[in-house]
Design a protein that fits this description.
2 domains, about 160 residues, 7 helices, two-stranded antiparallel sheet
Length: about 160
């Protein structure tokens, strides 16, 4: 069995089904076969609800192209919005002087306004994709930091509920 091999951790990926329910079933079947003292990495997962579902099942780390893919489409993560994202191509950001997220400590949020980023995006400036990706990756890192803190303080249920609302 692969769980008995002397790896430092285990990656779970490939075909995880055709729906989130099937993915959960695969994880529910796979993770108990892996040692508790080894890292479990889930490939291709970038949606917020999927991260919480993976963590609840014992996944430690994730990777996905979603942060860069949605950046290429003008979209950045923002917790307070539907699906936790906004599209900076939208004209409502044309004159918005605020950062993407006033609580974010990333370079993009500290240095640039939504209006400037919207201009870069609508102009097709390549710098937009880098700036949006910087924000999106930091957003996901901050989420995982909060999840780890919540696990340590037995507050994962409350944190997940906060993100669902």
């Amino acid at each position: 069995m692969i769980g008995e091999m002397p790896f430092g951790g285990y990656a779970i990926g490939g075909s995880l089904g055709k729906s989130k329910e099937e993915m959960h079933h695969v994880l529910d079947w796979t993770i108990p076969l892996l040692p508790d003292d080894k890292a479990r990495h889930l490939l291709g997962i970038g949606e917020i609800e999927d991260i919480f579902a993976g963590v609840r099942r014992g996944v430690d780390t994730f990777d996905c192209a979603a942060a860069t893919r949605i950046a290429r489409n003008g979209t950045v993560f923002l917790k307070s919005e539907p699906r936790h994202r906004i599209n900076l191509r939208n004209t409502r950001f044309r004159d918005d002087p605020r950062p993407i997220d006033e609580t974010c400590d990333c370079f993009t949020c500290r240095q640039h306004s939504r209006a400037y980023l919207s201009h870069l995006c609508r102009s097709g400036e390549f710098s937009f994709y880098r700036l949006a990706t910087i924000h999106n990756l930091r957003f996901l890192v901050r989420l995982m930091e909060r999840i780890r803190e919540a696990i340590e303080s037995n507050g994962l249920d409350e944190l997940e509920q906060e993100w669902r609302n």
